[in-house]
């Protein structure tokens, strides 16, 4: 029984025409905004990736076995190691195993490899550096609707030695342009990690619980207030602390109302006030410049899963299906290069989930105008002599940019016409003995059900390239 | 110390513009010839891939470790298994290990996954099925110049329930169009596995030595006659057998001369005669249709490494550097679907090595006309008020399809101009307090070193979109 690994899938040519349409639309806007295309390898050293995504990320990374002769040596080394140390088997056989068997993994996102790229190539790069990447990433998550183990991300990021909130504004404008071109209204939820830091401060939650706090808070919209509270209490956050700030996460009012409330609440938190100032700058300028298909909404419970975010955070959902899966996200990560030994360098970016945008657009029936660009012409195969005669015309049409197929065998004519029909090929050209003798080209239009004989190849080209 | 795994590399935006040019050229021709785009996942079940590429292939496949909680269970299962059976450790610990630790691998080529695709989707596919794929593959080969561990292949294949030599002719024409468009002359070496079968027959080499024979023969051009002979003898082929056919592998004469010789030599080999007939049909028709930048040459020592080839085989090398690495290859594989349980289905295809074409074209300095499509315009950042004022112009230019950047910070003007210069951005627009008051747009052309003030945004657009 042949099948595919769990969480992976094939893409047919119909799927591909829609995917290529999405990629082309996104790529065009990335380039109009001045982002450069780069690519990084699928495989990174484990040491580059580990610790950047939290514990769950480390365990869901696809790790590659050593290969060739080296593999056998490492197996024997591992067996020797644990034979001499029973403790390992009991306590951390997995860790010891991975250390021996693997030092490479498939990339888990595009952000960490990009920052690794910047650090490695810092002497050739012109800063501020704006790049985009459209490549697959891999996560051994439990597969479910909208969650594949291999999926494409479309990332645009800016990295520089100084930072500017105009970068966030540009990224929001960029998303608006992309989704406007796709005719797909979205909501961008925005929040700021420094505001969350401020709330943690006034709630009296200890610093060492920060990661636990954000990880649980990020589930607010999915599992609700009560379960988030339960999870936070289990991590050691007190009920009193929780109640001090929980009110804000449920606020449904508009931006200015939330701003007023939080300005009062955070008046003694320096970091909280800084977060508020940043957010206010972004929001007011965006309002001024205006958006098209995008609603920008402050969601105070937005925390984002990745460890590496430091400032603004963003999440994108479909406007008419807020509860649909998130189709993109991003934020500021001013410390990530630091973990690779490069200081005072600031990053911010967005990441669009190609497969999720695809799914959401299918769901809302937004691919109506995308066609499967089939071939334009099929040449009937009447036998070797006839094909050889016709081949110069086939070549000529292709030179003119007309996608042209030759049926490979001299099968029954009906079968060959059926092939054209099933593949949405509009025109069929027949050059049999008769046509060769008369020096004619016979062409049938399967859509209009008309047939005509041509004396001149240029008239055929004119007919084929005629616009409606 | 941060680095990349052995045999992998980053691609800068300059690299990417050349790669995208290659991909675009290849894709366009694939589509003009009527091939459809599909994609398959990077990860396949090991059972799908194993045994298709020969022993070396199996060992050079990148295998993925099981992940999550399942991994620990499998480690403990493996340890238990070998504890209870010392024999395994001595004899085949590696095999037992892989069985426990992995069932997935990165694809090794695009052909086997494609055939797996056809077998899995046979009920939705319209045959004859022509598809192309441009995706990376992974091999744990020893890295060296032109041999990466992750590299892109560009494959075009046809699969159907009947076969036709016009498919081979189409593929050769397709290569000729691609390399003509790239202005890159090539040689396509052609041979036929049935001719080799015929030679094996008349040499009296036993059937069970067929794989060894082709594997060694394939090295003829690299290591030479003497070393191939030595290797064949070591596999059990007799010196007498070798000498009976070695003469043909060194033949330097033209096609018709070779054909004459082999027609005599193979007169008693049915399979050999069939191979000759096929090759003659392809060669004569190609000569008749003619080629542009391609020389088609019969190379009797060509055998191809993959196990799965059955008929015609092809290999592509640069015309002016025959001894450069091979930049592509292909052939007929009429039995491959059979190994997945689908009978009487025939396949043929070509595979172009993107990274090798890149390398060969760099070597011959053929990328001169490819430019790095930089942004057209940089807006100087004079501060928040000025940027907010200018932003409507930035938006307008992007809407007009002009790639436009905003410098993110209000840094020193000189630094901002240097950024434009270093990035080959031709135009710099300055809108400071002065320009706002006068309602003007000031634009400098860094190439022509001219500066001008504009009253009207449409005049700016005209200037920016003006063709030379």
From TrEMBL, chains A, B:
Q: Does the keyword Nucleotide-binding apply?
A: yes
Q: Supply the EC number(s).
A: 6.1.1.21
- Keyword Lyase appears in the UniProt entry: no
Could you say which enzyme class this protein belongs to? ligase
What GO annotations for molecular function exist for this entry?
ligase activity
InterPro entries assigned to the protein according to its UniProt record, in alphabetical order: aa-tRNA-synth_II, aa-tRNA-synth_II/BPL/LPL, Anticodon-bd, Anticodon-bd_dom_sf, His-tRNA-ligase, HisRS-like_core, HisRS/HisZ
What chemistry does it catalyse, as a reaction equation? tRNA(His) + L-histidine + ATP = L-histidyl-tRNA(His) + AMP + diphosphate + H(+)
Underlying gene: hisS
Query: Which Gene3D superfamilies does the protein's record reference?
Result: Anticodon-binding domain, Bira Bifunctional Protein, Domain 2
Family named by the database record: Belongs to the class-II aminoacyl-tRNA synthetase family.
Provide this UniProt record's keywords sorted from A to Z. Answer: Aminoacyl-tRNA synthetase, ATP-binding, Ligase, Nucleotide-binding, Protein biosynthesis
Annotated organism of origin: Blattabacterium cuenoti BPAY
> Which named protein is this?
Histidine--tRNA ligase
Start and end residues of each Aminoacyl-transfer RNA synthetases class-II family profile domain: 1-374
* NCBIfam families per the UniProt record, alphabetical: hisS
Q: How does it assemble?
A: Homodimer.
Q: Which CDD domains match?
A: HisRS-like_core
């Amino acid at each position: 029984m042949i099948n595919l690994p769990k969480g992976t899938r094939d893409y047919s040519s119909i799927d591909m025409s829609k995917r290529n349409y999405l990629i082309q639309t996104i790529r065009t806007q990335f380039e109009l905004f001045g982002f450069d295309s780069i690519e990084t390898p699928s495989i990174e050293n484990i040491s580059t990736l580990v610790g950047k995504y939290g514990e769950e990320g480390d365990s869901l990374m696809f790790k590659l076995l050593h290969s060739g002769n080296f593999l056998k040596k490492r197996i024997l080394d591992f067996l020797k190691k644990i034979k001499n140390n029973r403790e390992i088997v009991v306590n951390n056989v997995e860790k010891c195993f991975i250390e021996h068997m693997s030092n490479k993994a498939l990339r888990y996102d595009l952000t960490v490899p990009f920052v690794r790229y910047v650090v490695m190539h810092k002497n050739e790069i012109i800063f501020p550096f704006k790049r985009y990447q459209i490549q697959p990433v891999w996560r051994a998550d439990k597969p479910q609707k909208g969650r594949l183990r291999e999926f494409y991300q479309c990332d645009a990021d800016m990295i520089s030695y100084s930072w500017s909130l105009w970068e966030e504004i540009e990224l929001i404008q960029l998303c608006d342009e992309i989704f406007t071109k796709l005719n797909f209204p979205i909501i961008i939820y925005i929040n700021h990690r420094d505001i969350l830091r401020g709330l943690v401060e006034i709630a009296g939650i200890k610093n060492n619980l920060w990661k636990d706090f954000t990880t649980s808070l990020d589930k607010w919209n999915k599992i609700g207030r009560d379960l988030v509270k339960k999870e936070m209490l289990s991590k050691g956050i007190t009920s009193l602390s929780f109640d001090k700030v929980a009110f804000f996460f449920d606020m449904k009012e508009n931006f200015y109302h939330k701003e007023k409330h939080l300005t009062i609440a955070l008046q003694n938190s320096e970091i909280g006030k800084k977060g508020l100032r940043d957010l206010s700058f972004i929001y007011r300028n965006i309002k001024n410049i205006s958006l098209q298909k995008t609603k920008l909404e402050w969601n105070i419970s937005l925390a984002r899963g990745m460890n590496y975010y430091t400032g603004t955070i963003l999440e994108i959902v479909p406007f008419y299906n807020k509860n649909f899966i998130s189709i993109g996200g991003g934020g500021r990560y001013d410390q990530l290069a630091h973990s690779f030994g490069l200081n005072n360098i600031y990053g911010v970016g967005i990441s669009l989930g190609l497969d999720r945008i695809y799914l959401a657009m299918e769901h809302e029936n937004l691919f109506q105008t995308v066609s499967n660009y089939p071939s334009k012409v099929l040449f009937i195969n009447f036998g070797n002599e006839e094909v050889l005669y016709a081949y110069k015309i086939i070549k000529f049409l292709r030179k003119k940019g007309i996608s042209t197929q030759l049926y490979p065998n001299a099968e029954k004519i009906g079968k060959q016409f059926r092939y054209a029909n099933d593949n949405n090929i509009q025109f069929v050209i027949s050059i049999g003995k008769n046509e060769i003798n008369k020096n004619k080209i016979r062409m049938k239009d399967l859509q209009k059900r008309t047939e005509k004989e041509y004396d001149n190849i240029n008239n055929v080209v004119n007919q084929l390239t005629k616009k409606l």
